[in-house]
Amino acid sequence: MHILITGGAGFIGSHLCDRLLEDGHNVVVLDNLVTGSLDNIAHITQDKNFRFINQNVAEYIDLQDPVDAVMHFASPASPSQTAPNGYLQLPIQTLKAGALGTLNALGVAKKYNSIFMLASTSEVYGDPLVHPQTEDYWGNVNPIGPRSVYDEAKRFAEALTMAYHRTHNVKTRIVRIFNTYGPRMAIDDGRVVPNFICQALRNDPLTIYGDGSQTRSFCYVSDLIDGIILLLNSDITSPTNIGNPHEITILEFAQTINRLINNPAGTILENNRTQGDPEQRKPNITKANQMLSWHPKVKLEKGLAETISFFKNQLDD
Amino acid sequence: MHILITGGAGFIGSHLCDRLLEDGHNVVVLDNLVTGSLDNIAHITQDKNFRFINQNVAEYIDLQDPVDAVMHFASPASPSQTAPNGYLQLPIQTLKAGALGTLNALGVAKKYNSIFMLASTSEVYGDPLVHPQTEDYWGNVNPIGPRSVYDEAKRFAEALTMAYHRTHNVKTRIVRIFNTYGPRMAIDDGRVVPNFICQALRNDPLTIYGDGSQTRSFCYVSDLIDGIILLLNSDITSPTNIGNPHEITILEFAQTINRLINNPAGTILENNRTQGDPEQRKPNITKANQMLSWHPKVKLEKGLAETISFFKNQLDD
How close does chain B come to A219, measured CA to CA in Å? Predict the structure, then answer.
C-alpha cells in the first residue's frame, strides 16, 4: 500500500512509519516539525519507499500520487503546562490541526478513495465519570477550559470523520489512543514518563503533582502500533480504544522507575495539579480484544527498560 | 458602530439586523443564503447603513472597511431529519460553518480589534443530565452521532473563541441560544413551531413525535435579541445562556396553538422520535439575569400570535 502519515515525524507517527516500511509499504510523511523531529525519522529518510514533506497539515495537501490510506496523526499532544510543544502553548495550532488538518487529510482520502484513520485520544472522554471508559461513553469535557483546544479539536475531528463516512462513504477508522510511552517521546515533552525517567537518570527526586494516588495506565508504543495496524486492516468504522488497562498509581509508577534506574533520591510531592488533569483514566479494551484479537503484550518493566535506554542515549549525546 | 453579522439573512440574524439598524448602527451581512433568505432582509437592503455580501463564511472574509463588532450567526440550525436546510442534510457545511466559519470571523475581529460574538447553542449541552442547564455544565454530547455535526461544531467554535480570547486578547462574547421562535422562521424548517402552526392553519391535526410529555421552553425572538444586545455591550467573555425557562410539554404547546388558531383537528401521536432529540432542555438564566438584568418579557400567547400572523401571510402568498 501507499500510505500518507500526517505527523509521521512524531513519537507515535515515526514508530508507525517503521512498522509500515518493515511490512513493505510505501510511506509519505507530512509533518511541519513543530512537535515532531527529523531525529525520529533520520534512520529511514534514505529508504526508497519513504518520502518526507515538510508542511503544516492545516494547509491544503497536494499529493503527486494516489495513496491507499491516509493516517492523520498530526497534532500537539502533550498536556504539559510548561513544555514548549504542549498544546497549551500551541492552542490555535492545535485547534487547526484537529479541524483544518482533519478536513485536509479527509479530502485526500476522499479524492483517492483511500482508507482514512484518525488518531483520536482518550481525551475525548475528558475527566470521565465512568470507569473504565468504553467507546460508547460520551465523555465529560469542558468546552471552554484551557484543555479544550485539544479535547474539542479531537471531538470535532471525530464528528467530521463520521460525517465524511456517512456523506461520502469514506472508509474511516478512529483510534482512541490512551497514554502511550516508549522511545522517541520528546525529552522536553513535559509528560510524566520523560519527566520521571530524566529526573531518575540525573539522580534527582521524581516530582509528583498531587498526592500520587491518581492512577494512570500506560501502553507501550509497540503494543499501540500492533493495535493500529489491526484496526487499519479491519472494517471497524466507529471509534476503537487502544490502550493498556493495567492501572498503576503515579506513586507506584515513580517508585518502579527509581528501582529500574537505581535512583536513591525517591519522590517529592507538589501540590499544584494541572487544571483539568483527570483523576483517573483507564481504557476498556473489550472491543479491540473481541474484534481485533488485540491485547497489550509488553510488560511495564520491559517497556520502561527500552524507554530508559533511549533517554539515557539522549542525555549522553 | 460598524457591525459584521454572518448569517444575517437568517431567522435570528435578520432580527438582529433590524435592531442594530434601528439603534443607528451600520450593518454588513455576510450570508450564502443556504439556510437564510433574501426575503428576511428585503425591507432593509436599500437602507444606506446596510450592505449585503453573498458569501460562504467558510471562505476567507475580505472586508473593505474595519468593523467594531463581528457577530458570527451563520450556521444551519434545524435538527429536523427531513427539512432540506437542516443540519442533518448539510452535515459537512455545518461542520465547516462552525470551524472554518468561526476561524474566519475571529480573523476579522482580531484584525480590526473588534468585539467578537459567537452564536452558540443549548445543543452544546447535548442530552443534558442536569436540569436546568447552567453555563458551567459541561454537557452530554455524543461526538459521533448524526447530530454531532452541529453540537461538536458549536463546542469547537466555543473552544476556538476562548483560545482567541486567551491568546490574542480578542474581546469575546458567547451566547448560548435556547429554543427561539418568531416571524421569519423558515416554513420548511422542520422544527416544531413552524410545523405545528402550519398544520393548525391548514386545519390538520398536529403531529407529536413521542407521547408529548417531553418538555421544551420557547423564547420569543425579540427577547433573545434584547439579551444579545445587552451581552454584546457587556464585558462577559464566557458563555451566557439566553432563553426562556418557562417549560411546557409538547402536548400543551400543541393544544395552545390549536386554541389560538381555532383548529378543531387536535393532535396525533407518532412513535418515531428523532435520534438524539433531548427529553428535556431548559435554561438556567441566573447569569443573564444578574449580570445583564435580562429576563424574557413576551408571554407565549403573545409571541405565538405574532408568529401565527407571519405564517398566515406566508401561506396566503
Answer: 24
